[in-house]
Amino acid sequence: MKLAAKLLVFLLILLVAFAAITLWRARNNELRAEAAYPPEGKFLTVDGVRVHALVRGEGPDLVMIHGSSGSTRDFTFGLINALEKDYRVIAFDRPGLGYTDLIDDPSIERQAALLQKAAAQLGADNPIVFGQSYGGSVALAWAVNHPDTLAAVVALGTPSMPWATPLSTFYKAMSHPMIGPVFAPALTAWVSTQRVSDAVEAVFAPQTAPDGYAEHFGPGLTLRRQSLRANAIQRANILDEITALSPQYEAITVPVELVHGEADDTVWISIHSGPLSERLDNTHLTTLPGIGHMPHHSALDDIIAAVHRAASRAALH
């Protein structure tokens, strides 16, 4: 056998061995993350989809929908503890994230329909719907498409209007139908949870994440192959979905509380909550000077006040 052929065979063997080790490490890391961060709530079956729901407290129903790369753990670090005294809080994992199953069509409209049915299954027929970032977009889709099934919307740092910033190379690759399935296992296997924790810190800027947040959040859950792909696909599609949804906002008849940090450079207030608040008479905008993209941790009192205001405006208190 010629030297070149031998070299090619050797390289192929190395490639196969690396792929096998990568898949083994990926699955091992996923199992370790799920053991360290088990489901916090219970499971519902909605249209054949397993939905993870955390239910706490008593009072008017408050449905909470997390943002990109998140799970119920973003809310159980502190916010739910502050709200469960006055509300029955229902926090959902969105499809493909946390412990809720993937769905074939992960659009914000389909997610809203799924979570609305899940809430109804729990007896929440007229809840306040609270969403942070991407979760706020789902809340707006819920209000547009299911106007008789909610009492109010509270949206934090929410993408709501079309924007011009292109999708990042990372999300283009991760959402690609051929590149993504190859890329995801490599990240799951070889990227450290510390890298995810560092990325979380960047999202909090100009604030810093509270002590213990990264450990509570569960970075290993975010690094699972399914979660990486689901999050990327949803991020890749949301601009087109918001572009289609935004002309329908006048159909929203319930009170809307918008809360947005002036220093949020992930979702800009000048593009999103500012114009939306000027467009709809039933919105109230709370602007938070100096606060970034995670006001439910950095400005907790303002978020609680917005929820109470939504409940009062909806005559739930």
Please describe what this structure looks like:
The chain is of the alpha/beta class. The chain has a domain of 203 residues: 3-Layer(aba) Sandwich (Rossmann fold). Helices cover 49% and strands 14% of the residues. It contains 14 helices and eight strands. Strands 1-2-4-3-5-6-7-8 form an eight-stranded mixed sheet, with helices on both faces. A hairpin with a 2-residue loop joins strand 1 and strand 2. Helix 1 crosses helix 7, helix 4 crosses helix 5 and helix 7 crosses helix 11. The longest helix is centred in the first third of the chain and has 34 residues. The radius of gyration is 21 Å and the shape is globular.
Percent in helix:
40-55%
Can you tell me the CATH architecture of the domain at 38-164 and 238-313? 3-Layer(aba) Sandwich
Shape: globular
Q: What kind of assembly state do the chains in view correspond to?
A: single chain
Query: What is the helix tally?
Result: 14
Q: List low-pLDDT spans.
A: none
Question: Averaged pLDDT, please?
Answer: 95
CATH class of the domain at 38-164 and 238-313: Alpha Beta
